[in-house]
Amino acid sequence: MKVLDGKKISNDIKNEIAAEVDKMKSNEEKVPHLAAVIVGNDGASLTYVGSKVRACERVGFESTLVKMPSTTSEVELLQKIKELNENDAIDGFIVQLPLPPQIDTQKILMAIDPDKDVDGFHPTNFGKMALDMSTFIPATPFGILELLERYEVDTKGKHTVVVGRSHIVGRPMSILMGRRGWPGNSTVTLTHSHTKNITQIISQADIIITALGTPNFLKAEMVKDDAVVIDVGITRVADETREKGYRIVGDVDFENVSKKVSYITPVPGGVGPMTIAMLLKNTLLARERHRLKA
Question: Which of 281, 272, 274, 278 is nearest to 47 (CA)?
Fold first, then answer.
């Protein structure tokens, strides 16, 4: 069994990006600039956005954090997005989800300029991804592809089962694993809450990608020997023995499943760190696009 170490690979990627930025600086070129918009005071969102800003600092990017109160109206947020779209200094930006209930998330994502949509959520970018065209791939699926590639995990002709059909992970992952090329060329089954015989389907999988958010959903008896398991689930579980009062748990019963499989991602330290690294990579790609257009 080999652990797919997202912490290590994300550090490798950040070092590679930092080297690119150093080259830009020595050539007196503009360095990439990432902006993040956060509406309200959701604790997990604030932590996540904070880690994105620190990652920008580490690789030498410019970064802007736009904080807006939870009472922000849809019109006010759309106006802020318009400003970011028109600001040539900013290469890419993200709007941290979830948004307060008075704001239509879909309307907000649609308003982002596809050329600055480094989260890869705009329908234009999602459509290009589905058609195998060059585009921004959503950061978490992009991170999973990168892990599979860097650990040289064979995907060709394999049966991949994706558990969960969210637009952020499950749906894009099912498209990407079935695409021509590598990682890809696998036969994909997308499962969800209405799938019958889900345990039986998972037991036939060579590669399992689970993004449910249900702690310890995937048990050892559901997994065949030497399968590859990618755990995208992140859930806080109360634990009074920990200083913070909780621990982070994935969708996979890691202790038992890891004894049967060929590759597995841990939680934390697997897919999570890769998401931020690939957001930085998308911002670097956005900077390059804007340079070529200029």
Answer: 272
| Domain contains 4 | no
Active site residues: 52, 96, 119
pLDDT tens-digit readout, 141-187: 999 999 999 999 999 999 999 999 999 999 999 999 999 999 999 99
**For 18-56, how does the pLDDT look when each residue is reduced to its tens digit (9 = 90+)?**
999 999 999 999 999 999 999 998 887 888 888 999 999
**Max CA-CA distance within the chain?**
59
Tokens of 119: 């989260």
φ and ψ at residue 61, rounded to 5 degrees: -75, 155
Q: Is 90 helix (H, G, I), strand (E, B) or coil?
A: coil
How many domains in the chain? 2
Residue 131 within any structural domain of the chain: no
What DSSP designation does 114 have? Answer: G
Contacts of 285 (CB under 8 A, 6+ apart): 118, 136
| Whole-structure pTM value | 0.94
User: CA–CA separation, 154 vs 146, rounded Å?
Assistant: 13
Domain that holds residue 62: 27-113
Is residue 73 included in any domain, yes or no?
A: yes
Task: Indicate whether 67 and 145 sit together in one domain.
Answer: no
Amino acid identity of residue 56, one-letter, is C
